[in-house]
Design a protein that fits this description.
7 helices, globular, three-stranded antiparallel β-sheet, 222 residues
């Protein structure tokens, strides 16, 4: 998929079917966009800082400041995979049952080719079969010693919008921006389920934030 194709995603096209129950886009949160200190992001950067031109996969949308940040700090090659848009497409088409198959075929990288994966909170929006399929692909493409950053909710929610995570470099914090789309429910994964799902990886760091989000850094065994 080209960079131009990526930029075409996002807006609702007139011919798209409505999401289940006839709901449109999830409403954007009210008030200013929160900026929250990330404890795991600096650990993720540190884990990859000694690698020459690392290859990263980002499950979020294209955010210019993030692209610049990773280019400056890691000199990396960055692949953008806006999985919220993929989830949104299947939600609107009422084909979420096909997500496990879709995610299992999405990544073209060969085994052990990727140094790092930025999952953000995408696993919160996936039912267990889809989450397992995505985790298997992450483990497959990750190099030995590679790192995975993921955010996991601790409380199930019936429906919330998607979020873009924009890096605020001065404070190593993340600005939580609204990501257009139908959003969806958030599902809770217990620590033991995460560890089992990412078989072949080990939890390197885990932080429970005041927002009740768990930031987890996983590493592939060398």
């Amino acid at each position: 998929m080209s960079f131009t194709d990526l930029l075409k995603f996002g807006g609702k096209r007139p011919d798209e079917p409505a999401p289940p129950g006839g709901r449109g886009d999830a409403p954007a949160p009210k008030g200013p966009e929160p900026v929250i200190q990330s404890k795991a992001l600096p650990k993720f950067i540190s884990a990859l800082s000694n690698r020459e031109a690392p290859l990263l996969i980002d499950f979020g949308p294209v955010i210019g400041t993030n692209v610049a940040f990773f280019g400056e700090h890691l000199g990396c090659k960055l692949f953008i995979e806006d999985l919220a848009t993929e989830i949104d497409k299947h939600t609107r088409a009422r084909t979420r049952d096909l997500l496990p198959e879709t995610l299992a075929k999405r990544f073209t990288q060969v085994d052990g080719a990727v140094d790092g994966v930025l999952c953000w909170d995408i696993f919160d929006f996936l039912e267990v079969p889809a989450a397992k399929a995505l985790a298997r692909e992450i483990v497959r493409v990750l190099k030995p010693g590679g790192a995975v950053l993921g955010f996991f909710c601790t409380k199930a929610t019936e429906r919330v919008p998607f979020t873009k995570y924009e890096i605020v470099e001065a404070s190593a914090s993340l600005r939580h921006r609204h990501h257009p789309g139908s959003g969806g429910p958030k599902f809770v994964l217990q620590n033991r389920d995460i560890i089992k799902m990412f078989d072949g990886l080990a939890v390197s760091e885990s932080f429970l934030l005041k927002s009740n989000t768990r930031e987890i850094l996983l590493r592939k065994r060398a």
